[in-house]
Design brief:
The chain is of the alpha+beta class. The chain folds into 2 domains: 253 residues, Nucleotidyltransferase, domain 5 (2-Layer Sandwich), CATH 3.30.420; 60 residues, no CATH class. Helices cover 37% and strands 23% of the residues. It is built from 12 helices and 14 strands. Strands 11-6-1-2-3-12 form a 6-stranded mixed beta sheet, with helices on both faces. A hairpin with a 4-residue loop joins strand 13 and strand 14.
Length: 363
């Protein structure tokens, strides 16, 4: 047993985190083990999902691919003979929002990812959804909010806007939007604002990345070189500029760069130095991140992280560029034309159903 621990700094780090948690608040942790840190989502069951689009959706008449609302959530098919590890359910689907703000009162979800944790196959799949997807947005108190970009669903749900009183605020309305449009049902949510993102990257000592393209920022409306293509060690502030920049490369290029950053964060967290920072990271996450994870959920996630190879068992997916088309569409809330991404809805629904069932593209 001792020899096994010597060979696995990840296991040592996990044990260290558990010991610190128990030592600093053991009884409290025991009594709140299954209690979420923030209000849990209360999404309707699949049978409660509206079978037809809202009347106002028909009034736009611009994008026929968005008019059919799915009636059921795809059934997840898992192998019943494989016992899930870590005392977890067979799988868990988590909505991860990167909020373009320093706080959570307002903010657009400029990064939207869905994480599928497979506790049977011991794998994690992360799917990036473009922020500019044009979707139906239901559930707000503002009658002019009918459709919008996916990232606006988070914004309209924030507490500061006051249009949505459901659980989870921005994350709650964004989760409902994903279910209404694509039948994708999430179990948990995580919202990370800009301050929290910088804190996470700095807590693990920064990250090493190879950037295939130059990174530009905007200077008086024109591109200005920030980092040249090549190998770089990034601080939290540097990483933030990369995940937010879409100058020259557009939103799809930004998604590709965000994936590079996420991979680097995952690898660094499982290094010896990254493991040493786990206790501090857990403290920062509980302070600066909005989530309905419980201590029990975090324990299961940490347990799974110890069993996987971040380079082999974490898969990063995105919607293929050729499935998306940029168009100018009418935003009734803003009373103006906006540039958004349209698509064949049935194709996206099928893709998300496979994703939630744990089916990887190569399978």
């Amino acid at each position: 047993m001792l020899e096994s621990l010597k060979q696995s700094p990840i296991k040592i780090g996990i044990i260290l985190v558990i010991l610190i948690l128990l030592n600093t608040g053991g009884w409290y942790l025991y009594l709140t083990w299954d209690e979420p840190f923030n209000e849990s989502l209360n999404l309707p069951t699949p049978t409660e999902v509206p079978a037809t689009p809202s009347p106002s959706a028909e009034s736009t008449g611009e994008i026929s691919a968005l008019e059919d609302t799915p009636t059921v959530t795809p059934e997840i098919t898992l192998t019943p003979t494989i016992v899930p590890v870590c005392g977890a359910p067979p799988s868990m689907t988590v909505l991860i929002s990167g909020v373009a703000a320093e706080g959570y009162l307002f903010g657009l979800a400029d990064s939207v990812r869905i994480a599928h944790f497979d506790f049977q196959r011991e794998q994690i799949t992360l799917l990036a959804l473009p922020r500019d997807l044009w979707v139906d947005i239901n559930g707000t108190s503002n009658a002019s909010i009918i459709k919008g970009k996916l990232n606006q669903a988070y914004f309209y749900g924030t507490k500061g806007m006051g249009y949505y009183d459901g659980p989870g605020y921005g994350s709650g309305l964004l989760a409902q939007t994903l279910q209404d449009n694509f039948g994708l049902r999430v179990d948990r949510y995580v919202a990370v604002n800009l301050f929290a993102f910088r804190e996470i990257v700095d807590a693990i000592g920064g990250i090493d990345v190879y950037l295939p393209e130059d990174i530009n920022t905007k200077w008086f409306g024109e591109p200005k070189l920030f980092l040249k293509a090549g190998q770089h060690h990034l601080t939290g502030k540097d990483a933030e500029k990369i995940v937010r920049s879409r100058i020259v490369i557009g939103d799809l290029g930004r998604i590709r760069n965000q994936t590079i950053i996420l991979k680097a964060v995952a690898v660094q967290m499982l290094t010896v130095n990254g493991v040493k920072q786990l206790p501090d990271l857990v403290n920062r996450l509980s302070t600066y991140v909005l989530t309905d994870f419980s201590p029990s959920d975090i324990s299961m996630m940490t347990c799974l992280a110890a069993k996987i190879d971040p380079k082999k068992d974490i898969v990063y997916q995105s919607i293929p560029d050729d499935l998306l088309q940029g168009e100018w569409v009418l935003d009734e809330y803003q009373e103006d034309l906006v540039y958004a991404l349209t698509y064949d809805k049935e194709v996206i629904i099928e893709m998300l159903a496979d994703f939630q069932a744990g089916i990887r593209p190569e399978q």
